[in-house]
Amino acid sequence: MADTPAKSTTTGAKHKTTGASGSNASHSAAAGTASPSTRAPRSEARSRFNSALDEARAGVAALGAEARDLASDYGSTAKTKGGDYADQLKTKAGDLAVEGKARASDAISGIAKLVGENAATIEDKLGAKYADYARTASKSLQDTATKLDDKSVEELGQDAREYVRKSPGTAVGLAALAGFLVARLLRGK
Alpha helix (H) ranges present in 118-167? Predict the structure, then answer.
C-alpha cells in the first residue's frame, strides 16, 4: 500500500510535467510562429501602414516647403513695399520740412519788417531808447530769417540738437512757446 501512493504521486508529477510542457509547447506554437494564412494579412497591413506613414511624411514636407516659399514671398513683398513706403515718407517729410522752413523764414521776415516799420511810431510814443530796441530786434529777426534760408534742413536739425544739449531748459521753454504760437496760428485759420 505504501508503494501505491508513491506511484500515483510520481504518475501525477509526470502528468503535471507532461501537462505543463504540453501547454508550453502549444503556447509557444501559437505565439512564435503563425500560420501562413495569418502572416500574409499582417505583413500586408504593416506594409500599407508604413507606406501611408511615408506618404504622410512626404506630404508634410511638401506643405512645409510650400509654406516657407509663401512666407519668403510675402516677406520680400513686404520689404519691397515697406521700403517704397519708407522712401515716400522720407521724401514727403523732407518736402514738408523745406516748406515749413520757408514759411518760418517768411514769418520771421514779416515780423522783422513789421517791427522795423513800427520803430518810428515807437520812437514818437515811447522815446528813442525803445525805438532802438525795436530796430535792433528787427535787425536780429531779419538776420535769423536769412540764416534760416541759408541752412539746409539737416543743418538746422544738427543745430537744434546741439542747442538742446547745451541748454535743455531754454530749449523746453522755446518749444512750449513755439507750440503755443503754432496752436494760435492754427486756431485762427
Answer: 119-126, 128-150, 153-166
**Size of the chain, expressed as the number of residues it contains:** 189
Angle separating helix axes 128-150 and 119-126, nearest 10 degrees? 160
Position of cell 521753454? Answer: 173
- In tens, the pLDDT along 172-187 reads 888 888 888 888 878 8
Specify burial of residue 133 (Cβ count, 10 A radius: 0-12, 13-18, 19+): middle
Whole-model pTM? 0.45
Nearest C-alpha neighbor of 145 from the set 182, 122, 116, 166: 116
What is the crossing angle of helices 153-166 and 36-117, to 10°?
80
Find, among 116, 118, 100, 92, the residue nearest to 185 by Cα.
Answer: 100
Cα gap 189→13, rounded to integer Å: 119
